[in-house]
Design brief:
The protein is built from four helices and 42 strands. Helices cover about 5% and strands about 55% of the residues. The chain folds into three domains: about 220 residues, no CATH class; about 210 residues, Sandwich (Immunoglobulin-like); about 180 residues.
Length: about 750
């Protein structure tokens, strides 16, 4: 037995056996949480007092409440006192919770403010962020953020292997801000109807973070360690005193109206076909309990959804695009399965989308929330007929039981059926997938370090039982993972097996028929005494992938020789890699038979250079260069980005990706251009335009989107799309292939 195989067997044994010995360590102290040891802030009742919400914290009521601050630095000096002070006050009435924050600044003219558009990235701006862990489960939370211009951003936090922030969730709330000679301040109003909570509890988990962008300074109210942070609810403090609050009837009706028209060029008929329509639909939400919400959607339309960013795929495996549709985003944290495992038995983009083309959704329903320590999610969607595609039914069920402070065990089930007209609507294809996942986690390992372990198993029934001879092993996946996500040291190791025939009907899968071992380790110390360098990260990543018969298919070894974060906010990194690939059949790289890689064994070395400037500058950019072997030849890839912010509310971003590939007796190049223009007139009125072109499809596409938030929950959208074919060899230079426009109005009634 060679050393490599011997090492692999030992590591697999450790991965499978260590949880038996680790459970007592993970469980030690799990039930010893004492709220009295946590940092606290008190919410004060207004008792009929009406606040003048203008961003200026000068009302008499606010002055009677003691300010809560005492932040500590997370960066640049962990645990140090902040250079600028912050004061927070919280009040409430029966309908809303109010936050007043004063961010003192000794140099107000240097406050960084560029963004106005709702949910825009605030990596460029000064900001104030906070979370509400309304159920005190230390696993999930509501996320909110603002900047000095009144931009509002929000999202949902879910825990797992690390923490996940989904910023595509939009809550109904408002914020008012003010910049003065003291710094900047804000008053925030969040209706209790916008969030779910336990009415029997007067205690929420809460945490705050302030960023002073010009100093690259991060301050935390609690959880200031680098391996902690705002996005970890287990490191939050507590908000006390909440009594007498109400969610009302918990009924929300959201009707919408849409009018749209389109024109598409028909290649066979060599002519355009036009269509126009007007339609109505609605969403209905009802809080069965304060922790459990039922929703119904009818005649759902996602015309206002932003387009996907185009990518050029030079690999053998499909690309994964993110979900952007509102109906599928709420509750997505509960539906997550074995985070960081790269196994997706449920992938919402398999519903109502085929190759990125929308399929009409007739109706849908969902039940999402908590029952005690259990999280549940039930989802059913019915799609309509589209061309040759028959109607389909999609169902998803998810159950997760929380135990100890940070651990959970869960189940998932999905069902997909396709109807056949000949059989009068009876399903002819029923696809069932089921799985289970275990997540053990503690943030108190050997002090205040985090240690995580996860395991999963997923299987499905045969797609065509009458002709299928596969076993359950062929149609299943399984794996385990250890994670040590701390600073300055972090590491993880995972092992997983994917069957030859694994293909979940509502899931996403890139590759079948393999065993994969992946260890990685990183070291990233802070250089607190340096005036120029803040952090340097080094790391090693290894991947060893074989067939189910233990034949080596893929081997990757990557060395991060140093990723430097400068005090200025600029970054520079260098990476070297070695890759091995075994190809058992022809690989058509471009899909047009022009460049084909023959079966065989391929070993290639490569390197990558990356650099980026601080994003808070009016002009910032990034560049990445990759070079090395590529199958039988070589690849040179250049990725550049440039952002210009000439004035408040104006953002112009551009990106360019170029790949030059040389192969045996052939070669090719690809180019991808992207331009994003954002005009943000106010935090509630914005115009954005996305322009994309690649020379693989030869399609120039534009997506222009106007949004006006009249009041939170009441929106008007105008969307215009236009695609041109630009192929001079076919005498098709900027030839219109598709164009369409839509206007959508949404209103929210709350009871």
């Amino acid at each position: 037995m060679n050393f490599q195989n011997h090492f692999k067997k030992i590591l697999i044994y450790v991965i499978y056996k260590l949880p038996i010995y680790l459970i007592p360590v993970l469980g030690f102290g799990q039930d010893m949480d004492n709220e009295n040891d946590l940092k606290q802030i008190i919410g004060y009742p207004l008792n009929g007092i009406e606040l003048r919400l203008d961003g200026i914290v000068d009302e008499e009521f606010w002055t009677t409440i003691p300010g809560n601050g005492n932040f500590l630095m997370q960066e640049p000096k962990e645990g140090a006192k902040p250079t600028e002070q912050t004061e927070i006050r919280i009040a409430f009435d029966s309908q809303n919770i109010y936050i007043a924050v004063v961010c003192y600044d000794s140099s107000p003219s240097d406050i960084k403010t560029f963004q106005k558009k709702r949910d825009a990235s605030l990596e460029t701006d000064d900001r104030f962020r906070w979370i509400f862990d309304t159920f005190m489960d230390k696993r999930s939370a509501y996320f909110f953020e603002i900047n000095p211009l009144g931009l509002r951003g929000d999202g949902l936090i879910s825990s797992g292997q690390g923490q996940t922030l989904n910023k595509d969730w939009d809550g109904i709330w408002n914020a008012w801000t003010y910049i003065g000679d003291f710094g900047w301040s804000a008053e925030i109003k969040i209706p209790f109807r916008s969030i779910n909570f336990d009415p029997k509890s007067d205690v929420w988990g809460i945490n705050f973070q302030r960023t002073i962008r010009r100093k690259n300074e991060e301050q935390l109210w609690t959880g200031h360690r680098r391996n902690q942070g705002l996005l970890r609810p287990q490191n939050a403090g507590i908000l006390t005193g909440l009594v007498g609050h109400s969610q009302g009837l918990g009924l929300e009706i959201i009707p919408y109206g849409i009018t749209q028209s389109s024109k598409v060029y028909d290649e066979e008929k060599a002519e355009y076909s036009s269509a126009s329509s007007m339609d109505l639909g609605f969403d209905l939400n009802y809080n069965i309990t304060s922790q459990l919400k039922a929703s119904i959607t009818y005649n759902t339309d996602f015309a206002q959804t932003e387009v996907d960013n185009r990518q050029i795929n030079l690999t053998r495996f499909p690309l994964r695009f993110p979900e952007k549709r509102d109906f599928f985003l709420e509750g997505s944290s509960i539906l997550e399965f074995a985070p960081s495992s790269n196994v997706d038995p449920y992938f919402s983009r398999r519903i109502g989308l085929v190759n990125g083309i929308p399929i009409p959704i007739k109706y849908g329903g969902r039940l999402i929330g908590n029952i005690g320590k259990s999280n549940i999610a039930l989802l059913h969607v019915r799609t309509g007929r589209e061309g040759e595609l028959n109607p389909e039914n999609f169902s998803v069920a998810r159950y997760r039981r929380n135990f100890w402070k940070e651990s959970s065990i869960g189940l998932i089930y999905t069902h997909r059926s396709t109807e056949d007209d000949i059989l009068f609507g009876n399903p002819i294809q029923d696809r069932n997938t089921w799985g289970t996942d275990l997540n053990l986690s503690t943030s108190e390992f050997l002090g205040d370090n985090t240690l995580q372990f996860s395991a999963f198993f997923v299987a499905h029934n045969p797609a065509l039982p009458s002709v299928d001879s596969t076993s359950i092993s062929d149609r299943s996946v399984r794996g385990v993972r250890f994670n040590f996500p701390n600073q300055p040291w972090s590491a993880w190791v995972s092992y997983r097996e994917f069957g030859d025939a694994y293909d979940p009907a509502i899931g996403f899968n890139q590759r079948n028929g393999f065993k994969r071992l992946q260890p990685a380790i990183n070291y990233a110390p802070l250089f607190e005494k340096s005036q120029f360098i803040r952090e340097i990260e080094w790391g090693v990543y290894y991947e060893y992938l074989t067939s189910l018969e233990n034949k080596l298919l893929t081997e990757n070894l990557r060395f991060n020789l140093g990723t430097i974060r400068f005090e200025s906010g600029d970054n520079l990194g260098v990476e070297v890699s070695r890759g091995f690939e075994f190809l058992n059949e022809d690989f058509d790289i471009l899909g047009d038979s022009t460049v084909i890689v023959a079966p065989g064994k391929y070993v290639n070395w490569g390197y990558e250079l990356q650099a980026s400037s601080a994003s808070f500058r009016k002009v910032s950019g990034s560049i990445g260069y990759e070079a090395g072997g590529f199958w039988t030849g070589n690849i040179r890839r250049l990725v550049m980005g440039l952002t210009i912010r000439p004035a408040l509310g104006i953002n112009l971003s551009s990106g360019y990706t170029h790949a030059q590939v040389s192969a045996e007796n052939s070669g090719f190049s690809t180019n991808l251009f992207q331009v994003d223009l954002g005009l943000d007139f106010t935090p509630d009125i914005s115009l954005s335009s996305n322009i994309q072109f690649d020379d693989i499809s030869d399609i120039l596409g534009t997506n222009t989107r106007f949004r006006w938030i009249i009041t939170p929950g009441t929106d008007i959208f105008f969307v215009y799309n236009h695609n041109w074919l630009n192929n001079p060899t076919l005498n098709r230079r900027l030839f219109t292939t598709q164009q369409g426009a839509a206007m959508k109005a949404v209103y929210t009634y709350r009871f």
